[in-house]
Structures are given as C-alpha cells and as structure tokens.
Amino acid sequence: MLPTRKEAEKLLTEAEKCNQGAWGNHSRVAAHCAEKIAQECGDLDPDKAYILGLLHDIGRKFGVRHLGHVSDGYLYMTSLGYDEAAQICLTHSFNTGTIDAYIGTFDTTAEELKVIQDALKTVIMDEYDKLIQLCDSIAGPAGVLEIEERMRDVKERYGSYPQEKWDNNLKLKKHFEEKMGKDIYIVVDKDNFKP
Ligand SMILES: [Fe+2]
How far apart (Å, rounded) are the C-alpha atoms in residues 172 and 10? Predict the structure, then answer.
C-alpha cells in the first residue's frame, strides 16, 4: 500500500519540521526524477515513482543518523501500513543487495540492524527499487546532479565510496537510458529543474 501524492507531500513536510536539512529537497528532486523517468519507461507508474522518491529518506524525520535512517524509515512506513514505501526506505541504500557496501556509520542498535538484515533477506528488488537507487544518486538538494558529480560528493563527505556501488549506479543509469531510449539528464530536465 502507498499514500497518495498529497499525503506523501504532507508526510515529508511534517518530517522536515522534526529534522530540518537538505534531505527534504533532496527527496523532492529524487521524486521529480523518478516521475519523469517512469513516464518515459512506459511500464512504470509515474505517480507511484514520485511517491516512492519523496519518501525514500523519510527515516531522517527521526534525526541525523546514518544506517539508522534506513531502519527508522522502514519501521515508520511499516507502522503506517505503507509497505511499498517501507521497502524503498530499505532498498535505496543497498544497490548491491547487501548491507556490506553501505556508505556511512553503522549506528543502529543490534535490534535495528536485525530488522534491516531480515528484511533484506526476503526482499525481491524490482524496477521501482532500481529507479529510486538511481534517482538517489543524481538528486542533489538544489537540483539534479551528474551521477559522477554526486558520487564524488558523497565520496568526499564520507571518505570513500565502494567501487561495486559506484559501478552499479552507472549500470542503473545505463539500464534506464536503454529502456527509455533517451538521455537521462534530458528526461529529468537537469539544467532547469529546481525543487
Ligand atoms: Fe536519498
């Protein structure tokens, strides 16, 4: 189940009041990109893509955390019955399908870590998971960024970036560009879109 666009926008606005930061507009940029790419793919629902993009980082509502934002978002969306958004809160951080390539601190409790590991074991990633992973890697807080530029920025902030994750993001870009038959940056109106 998913919230409506309006409900999702409200959830994000409310969440930002609890923990202000660039993550709110980063989420809006990701949502915009997901919607535009889904429109061009033909077999994806643009509304669903937008809503999932908007909520992928909703766990940040509960404070500044690294891996903790994954379990916070997953548990929050699950508690509201929004299982599809919960899945995205989980999968957007793991484009390799495992927790090992996570960039950032493992700041979860043992219980939270188990929630993530158990959920990752059973999840079957689909096109929406892949789409939001891609959009997360091109969404800056002020607009769309080139994928390498965004990954370099993350690398600088965290000190490293796993090569497998880097390569997978480039593969995701190629996958969706082939599906659309178009350049991703043109589809998302990279040079003009502002959140
Ligand atoms: Fe994100």
Answer: 29
Domain range annotation of the chain: 5-187
Instruction: Compute the distance from residue 126 Cα to the ligand 1 centre, in Å.
Output: 18
What are 163's two structure tokens? 């090569």
Question: Worst-scoring range by mean pLDDT, 35-49, 73-87, 157-171?
Answer: 157-171
Answer whether residue 111 shows pLDDT above 90: yes
Q: In whole angstroms, how far apart are CA 172 and each of 113, 131, 137?
A: 26, 8, 10
Measured in Å, residue 140 CA sits from the centre of ligand 1 at 9
CA 56–ligand 1 middle distance (angstroms): 6
Task: Please spell the DSSP secondary structure of 62-112, one letter per residue.
Answer: G-S-STHHHHHHHHHHHHTT-HHHHHHHHHTT-TTSSGGG--S-----HHH
Q: How far apart are CA 91 and CA 133, in angstroms?
A: 8
How remote is the CA of residue 12 from the centroid of ligand 1, in Å? Answer: 13
Ligand 1 centroid from CA 25, angstroms: 10
**Domain spanning 5-187 has what CATH number?**
1.10.3210
The pTM assigned to this predicted structure is 0.96
Query: Which among 81, 65, 37 is positioned nearest to 185, based on CA atoms?
Result: 37
3 Cβ neighbours under 8 A, 6+ residues apart: 11, 51, 55, 80, 82, 85
Place 167 in a pLDDT band, splitting at 50, 70 and 90. very high
